[in-house]
Amino acid sequence: MDRDGLIWFGLAITAALVAMPGVLAGGLPLLPLFIVCVGLACTLHSGCRRLVVSTTLRLLSRGALRNAIIVLGAVMLIQLLPLELALFMAGDVLAYVEVLAAVGLIAANARVRVIRGMIEAKTDQWRAAVRRRIANRTPRVARPSARRRPPSPNDDPATGWALA
Predict the structure, then answer these.
(1) Which terminus, N or C, of the chain has the lesser number of Cβ atoms within 10 Å?
(2) Within 13 Å of residue 82, how many CA atoms lie on the same side as its CB?
(3) What is the pLDDT of residue 17?
């Protein structure tokens, strides 16, 4: 068993320990038992491990991962604890989530200010370039066409040889 297999085995054992109070109380905690099954399958088979990891990364990219972990934790708390205590803890977790959302909004606002400043600077550069071109543009007078010289009389016999 390699290092990744041991990590998956540890996940299966942890989920089994989380599911144990629910099973002993006569319930059937489906989510922890599902995690136990997936963890054991990934411990034994590397192809299954790659499939689970790639699917999880694709489905839970960026902010969805944080939301999924919060929901998963809330579901586990609800299965393990009495309802009142679980709701109290869920409210506490919700306060932390609100703080995370506020920090995320502040960070996004700071990024928007920087991007807006960069766009305004580029727009000002473009406007200045257009104004310079307009200011430098002066009406031009067309030059008179050059007079054509009449052909010299020496070239008359050479016209027959031009195509040879």
Answers:
(1) C
(2) 2
(3) 92
